[in-house]
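Hello,

Our lab assistant flagged a job as stuck in the queue for most of the afternoon. It eventually completed. Since we weren't sure the result was trustworthy after the delay, we are filing this so someone can double-check. Below is the sequence as submitted and the structure that was eventually returned. Let us know if re-running is recommended.
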Amino acid sequence: MLRKLLYVAFVALIATNILLGGWLIYEKIHENEINQQIKAQQINEKVLVFTKLFVQKVLQGQDGISFEDRLQLENAVRDLNDQSIFNQWQKFTKSQNNTEAQQTAGSLFDLLLDKISF
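-- returned structure --
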């Protein structure tokens, strides 16, 4: 009788461990999904901050870009930590004429919009 009771208790403990292990795996997967969403939101925020600065300081700017504005834009683009955006920004800043600047600005803006995830 005692052996039967121990067997039932052992099976119950194994079943409980399996259920708790499954629950733990489910929670870990859910945690990873939440962390990915948080990271995407942080990237979106940084991209939007730079995009807003770019529109305000460059596209809507009446005069040339001041040193302070350029520094603010440089810091914002570096804060993105995205090599493709940084490379496109470098192309824009090295534009030789208005036509080239318009083309590279359009490409940069398009790239920024592509980086925003929903």
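-- support follow-up --
The delay was a queue issue, not a problem with the job. The result is valid. The first helix runs from residue 2 to 59. The CA atoms of residues 85 and 101 lie 15 Å apart.
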